[in-house]
Design brief:
Shape of chain B: elongated
Helix content of chain B: 55-70%
Distance between the termini of chain B: 93 Å
Number of helices of chain A: 8
Structural class of chain A: mainly alpha
Radius of gyration of chain B: 40 Å
Order of helices and strands of chain B: HHHHH
Largest sheet of chain A: none
Oligomer: heterodimer
Distance between the termini of chain A: 28 Å
Shape of chain A: globular
Number of strands of chain A: 0
Helix content of chain A: 55-70%
Number of strands of chain B: 0
Number of helices of chain B: 5
Radius of gyration of chain A: 18 Å
Largest sheet of chain B: none
Low-confidence stretches of chain B: none
Structural class of chain B: mainly alpha
Largest interface: A-B, 48 and 33 residues
Chain lengths: 189, 120
């Protein structure tokens, strides 16, 4: 996750995360608002891939409220984005636990405004959705964080609190399963 | 021709990124809702620092007090004869109990006889 230009009130050089966190700890809500605007998009995207569209707003809210409450315990030496992704993962697994299912079955929905312009694109998006849905939450998380969010394996290991070797093996398994699924559906990679 | 696995993976990743499903947009009031739900933090670093000095002082006092107490319980040996007395006294006490303690002021020959006469 990197600072984006989606912060109209922010100066040209974005304020570093550490400074915003210090301001948050002094009780300045606008600093937290800036952090929210900086990170809500990747958090939302990750939660969507992990949990689906259902209750997505509630889950995003839960992540940021947990982050706000946890800020006094946040170690300044750690990377804020890694910490926030970890909270995101915790929220996703808590939701699965609440649902009481061994394998979460997210539901995705396309809002009318985001419909692809052609049928092929729509078809491929549907395939990716179904392919991701077929994976276990643990395998999906590794694939989403590494391949879609473009995080290095070491960071994925930190977020999920697993060894780097486990990340590699899960990534291999997830990619193989997805490849098999897509090829079975007639996609030539 | 079969591609090497890494190129195969790259193609898959490209495909996934290109066709990843996008999340629906957030509710218009979500940001305001989150900011409204944010409450003042219970403890900040400033507060933590305020408590740090008294806590450090109390810890030092406890450490100092503990050290003084411990020192007072340790026997203060001044000379080698003090050490001798202490060793003899504790050795007899541990082997025979207080009733078998021998008088230390007896001459050496008596002392040896007494030792051999003591039942094991």
């Amino acid at each position: 996750m990197t600072a984006t230009s989606l912060e109209p009130e922010m100066p040209a050089v974005p304020t570093p995360d550490a400074e915003l966190i210090r301001r948050c700890l002094r009780g300045q809500k606008p600093a937290f608002q800036a952090l929210y605007r900086r990170y809500q998009r990747p958090v939302r995207g990750t939660l969507f891939q992990l949990c689906g569209a259902e209750e997505l707003d509630d889950l995003v809210q839960e992540v940021f409220l947990r982050a706000w409450k946890g800020l006094p315990k946040f170690r300044q030496s750690a990377q804020f984005s890694t910490w926030l992704y970890r909270i995101t993962w915790n929220v996703a697994t808590d939701r699965r636990r609440r649902q009481g299912k061994a394998r979460s079955q997210p539901t995705w929905s396309h809002p009318p405004s985001l419909e692809p312009s052609n049928l092929t694109q729509l078809h491929y998006e549907d395939l990716v959705q179904r392919g991701l849905q077929a994976l276990s939450l643990e395998h999906r998380a590794v694939l989403v964080l590494h391949d879609l969010e473009d995080l290095p394996q070491q960071e994925v290991a930190s977020i999920l609190n697993i060894p780097k070797g486990t990340v590699k093996s899960r990534l291999h398994h997830a990619r193989s399963a997805l490849k098999t699924f897509l090829q079975r559906e007639g996609v030539q990679l | 021709m079969t591609l090497p696995p890494n190129q195969d993976d790259d193609r898959l990743v490209d495909f996934l990124r290109h066709h990843r499903p996008e999340p629906p947009p957030a509710a218009p009031n979500l940001e305001a809702q989150i900011m409204a739900a944010v409450e003042p933090l219970p403890s900040t670093t400033v507060h933590r620092r305020r408590w740090a000095w008294p806590a450090l002082a109390a810890s030092l006092m406890l450490l100092g007090g503990g050290w003084i107490t411990w020192r007072s319980t340790v026997p203060g040996w001044q000379t080698a004869s003090d050490v001798d007395d202490f060793l003899v006294a504790t050795w007899y006490a541990s082997a025979y109990g207080d009733e078998a303690r021998l008088p230390l002021e007896t001459p050496q020959s008596d002392w040896l006889v007494s030792v051999y006469a003591t039942p094991y």
